[in-house]
Amino acid sequence: MHGYSDQNLEALGDAILAYSADRLKLDPVPLDGPRTLAELDAAAGATITAEGIGGLAALTLFEEDLAPACISTDHPRYLSFIPCAPTEAAAMFDLVVGASSIYGGSWLEGAGAVYAENQALRWIADLVGLPPQSGGVFVPGGTIGNLSALVAARHTARMTAAHEGRTGAGARPFRVAATHGAHSSIQSACDVMDAELVGVEVDGQSRLSGENLRKVLVAHGPETFFAVVATSGTTNFGIIDDLASVAEVCREFGIWFHVDGAYGGAGLAAPSVRERYAGIELCDSFIVDPHKWLFAPFDCCALLYREPALARAAHTQRASYLDVLTDAPDWNPTDYSVGLTRRARGLPFWFSLATHGTRAYTEAVERTLQVTRFAAAEIGRRDYVELVREPDLSVVVFRRLGWTPAQYQEWSDRLLADQFAFVVPTSHEGETLTRFAIVNPRTSEDDIVAILDTMA
């Protein structure tokens, strides 16, 4: 900017690179934690001024006051929600993406980036078992991924209805079927689309099943549904729905079959659990968040379609200034999701895959599953904790016998205050529980033992 000398810019660049390098070298990283608004006001004060405080001062402020007020999601004992533990290669390349001013929305403007992203998408598509013509785009997260897939599903269903002469208002498909275990973003997407989400009761293993799905579709009229959403790894428990039977019912009624694998889809890379995903290869669309269990930085969701042309018909934006893009046969990522402007958010994931190779990814996912199995067994060995459900993937939900909700919260708060671990309570069917979400390959058996010891 005007008034900022080349010398100052060089010094700031050196400082930012040094900070980034130091942060990447930290092992373990500090857990850190939130501060109150009053504490941050006292420490940082007004940071936006007419004259500016200078880059080095702003960086110091961030390093000393703001960054420590953010919990490090890549800490090996961050086991809440779904952590994010990017490889060093992916995190470093995020700097490159930010510095390169790449527009990742069109082939015309970002062909090299789109080419690389598509190779990363192809690896995921092959894990799912999707055909060679499948493809998609990297979007910010599972919420936008699910919304975009459902928009494509509804557009396809309505085009089919119109083609078949079902043009009356009552014949326009407006419903989505899913279980209560589906991610909250499915309800959010339905709200945005003014669609109705119809719940399906789970089977004895807490899964969406074809049998229960068929009952709901028949009861409401299958022609009123434009999509069924199954989950390959629920957030709270890591449960994989009965994908094969759900796919069969969707084929029977001609309804779009979407699989939300935002967290659990990464398990497709692990041979030890791959069979649990049987039927996923029949999906019409699929999402997985590499920033969850595939070691990419925020924000990165892979959205894939069996037939990308259907998504392109639903999502392509048309304007005179875009004719040069929409009239070309090129692969333009913005044609496949909600939104036009996009950064090439898949590049850090691609770079890490290219750097380490896919075998390393398989080994890393298998390592987290190994620690998960250890955690489940260790809980079984202790008389004061109890496993709620054998884990499908890498989420372990358990109870501390005799504890009240307040005791769970006090325990969780103490762990964070002591900078020991970040494990928060959850709930299921009205009961307060807690859980480990193990997606960081640096989380060890010793970490699990140490945290369980604090509950004794």
How is this structure best described in words?
- The protein has helices spanning 6-25, 37-43, 55-66, 88-100, 107-128, 142-163, 184-193, 210-220, 243-253, 290-293, 308-315, 323-326, 347-356, 358-381, 405-417, 445-453; strands spanning 135-139, 175-178, 196-199, 225-231, 256-260, 285-288, 301-305, 385-387, 395-400, 425-428, 431-437.
- It has 456 residues and is of the alpha/beta class.
- A seven-stranded mixed beta sheet has the order 1-7-6-5-4-2-3, sandwiched between helices. Strands 8-9-11-10 form a four-stranded antiparallel beta sheet.
- Helix 6 crosses helix 7 (184-193), helix 8 packs parallel to helix 9 (243-253) and helix 14 (358-381) runs parallel beside helix 16.
- The termini are far apart.
- The model has no long low-confidence stretch (mean pLDDT 95).
In short:
By secondary structure, the protein is an alpha/beta fold. It is built from 16 helices and eleven strands.
C-alpha-based Rg, rounded: 24 Å
How many strand segments? Answer: 11
Describe the global form.
Answer: globular
For the report, how would you describe the main beta sheet?
A: 7 strands, mixed
Based on secondary structure, the structural category is: alpha/beta
N- and C-termini, Cα separation: 58 Å
